[in-house]
Write a structure and sequence with these properties.
The radius of gyration is 22 Å and the shape is elongated. The chain starts with a helix and ends in an 8-residue tail after the last helix. By secondary structure, the protein is mostly helical. The chain has a three-stranded antiparallel sheet. It has a two-stranded antiparallel ribbon with strand order 1-5. A hairpin with a 2-residue loop joins strand 3 and strand 4. Helix 2 crosses helix 4 and helix 3 crosses helix 4.
Length: 160
Amino acid sequence: MTSAAEEWAPLRSVLWGSFNGLAYVPRLPPTAYTLFLHLLTEQEPGGLVVATHDELATGLAMDRGMISRAMPYLVAARLVTVVRRGRFQIHPMLAAFETPRDQQRAVKVLPKDMRLDEGDFEDEYERRLELHQQEKARKAEMRSKVTSIAGRRPRLKPVR
């Protein structure tokens, strides 16, 4: 006969999460939603996801470029933070934790401006997304200038 502790042992690895924060998720492209839901399934306790864009793309049967194009929407919405290459942090209001108390502690220490239920979330998302688009356009313009300058350089003749 097994004890109650032995019967519940497999459930100890189950994580707890509150998805009330999903009420504040803005209008995202379908690929961004798909990526976010996948990140939720891949997270460690506390919301850390350790995976490269290639690994995420493989897990979703998508091209890596689709992941790269979807991620800025999640970052602009503050649902995900890029910690560094291959490491992403899900917002504490949406991340899974080992206990509800762990999540309460994580949310309690959040600065007020980082909470999903404070301020005008949709307007803030739109503003952040616009800033991202402007930065992307600025970088593309800089690349085109470098390319056009390189095209005007005189060609050197080989020394014989």
